[in-house]
Protein: FAD-binding domain-containing protein
Amino acid sequence: MAGSEQFNNASIRWSAAQRPQYDAIVKPDIEEDIQKTIRFANKQNKPFLAISGGHGTTSLISNVKHGIGILMTGMNNISIVDDGHAALIGGGALTGDVISYLWSHGKQTVTSGCDCVGYVAPVLGGGHGWLQGQYGLAADQLISARMVLANGEAITVSEESNPDLFWAIRGAGHNFGVVTQLKMKIYDREPERDQWAATGFVFTHDKMEDVFTIANGWLQESERPPGMVQYGLFMHNPEVDPVNPIVGMYIFWQGSSIPAKYTVPLYALSPVTVNASVTDLAGVNTHISANLDGASCAKGFSRAMIPVSLTSYSLLALRKVLDTFAAMPPEFRHSVMMLEGYPTNRVNEIPNDSTAFPNRDGQLLPSPVLTYPKNASLDATAWEIGSKIQSALLEGNGGNLEAYVNYARGDESMEELYGYEPWRLEKLRRLKKKYDPHGRFNFYAPIF
Structure:
């Protein structure tokens, strides 16, 4: 109950800026516990919210008042089934748990770049990750799901059972239920591709245009390597430059070494530092400090994320973003501008209408991770900085905002989150009315 040490620990989120308020937190061990909790909450007219990694940064989570938290960490079992072709993953498993378990059993699947996030929620929003160039999004690996609906009913969702809902939860799944278990496609490790090489280059701000001209060239390759990830960063490092942000560019390569054609042009720009290492998929998240003990997983700060999807980089827009970072108040100097570029080879091959995920053409996921002390008076400043960055990127792109739902901040329209095709929105609204008519799952990127 509220006030206990267990309650306080369970309430701590990755970002203190989003503040759901609970009267109680329940830790279920089995699916029936979740059914009972939801039915009780409905009877008492209390909101409820599932908690796994606690990473969602949408402002709408703060609308949970006098609610019931459903702490999923007791349901984190993982097992391999179907002669090694699939895995059953509990609703409380963390991404790092999934990566490590599968890897130790000679398997792998599409997983995100952060060990401490819950595994289920990214899948429900599409799920970008390291292996998507080969296999598609994490949502494309979903075979079936067990879910507890808004009325407390537990169902199986798959191509054969409730296929309409199966379509919807692969991209808009936060709207429809509490997932108690996923059944996911898994793949054999390939010994010749077990290793992941990473080289991180750091440049002074004046090299930014040159660096991202090279990055744009990678995006335009006619035969883009499915195992290459580009990961740009803007951040402050006073040891390199006490005033201006530095520019980072990581190249991740599925293999023991990165081909010289990708590294030589960056070396030619005279980087300040270069850091090269080789690991495996089970350790690849350490490169960006997103392992369980890494800085990216630390709690106790406030954070804000503001998503934009792009097909290429506008150098003028990136310069505006860099200037915005340079002008941030001191409280925000631990922030990072993420410029993620996962390969999209297999993602683009899967029909756009096969799932609710709307944006298979997107090549890049720029988003600031604005990090600042836990202080409500700074939230408005974070919102202002984020809006300025988003506006600059949109102006440079010259198109409509397409926001990755897993990075949603709370003010996006349905079109921005779920696509601009009328048929897609009509289908989602119809399914929302059928499965959640009272909006019990409206605290994360709601369909309305």
User: Anything to note?
Assistant: The first strand starts at residue 22 and ends at 26.
